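User: Could you go from structure to sequence for me? I need the amino acid at each position, not a summary. Structure tokens:
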């Protein structure tokens, strides 16, 4: 199953806008794709460091074959859906 990870912070304006699109896409593809949201200020997983997150929002798609696609910055709902379906 594909996994999409969103890195964000509560104080980040673009993250708040992106969060609305994220929620819609996550709901639409629930059960088909795993969606994970990580607040970089509360990250205990070490994933933000692993993916070298330097700006937020930051999105990582992990495909079934392990290939990773990384998008930095806010992306539209359409772009997120394209990413999920790629």
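Assistant: Here is the amino acid at each position, in order:
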């Amino acid at each position: 199953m594909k996994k999409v990870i969103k890195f964000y912070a509560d104080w980040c304006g673009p993250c708040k806008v992106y969060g609305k699109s994220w929620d819609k896409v996550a709901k639409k593809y629930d059960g088909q794709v795993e969606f994970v949201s990580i607040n970089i200020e509360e990250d205990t997983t070490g994933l933000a460091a692993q993916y070298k997150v330097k700006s937020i929002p930051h999105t990582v798609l992990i495909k079934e074959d392990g290939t990773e696609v990384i998008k930095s910055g806010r992306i539209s709902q359409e772009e997120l859906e394209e990413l999920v379906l790629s």
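One structural detail worth keeping in mind: The chain has a mean pLDDT of 95.
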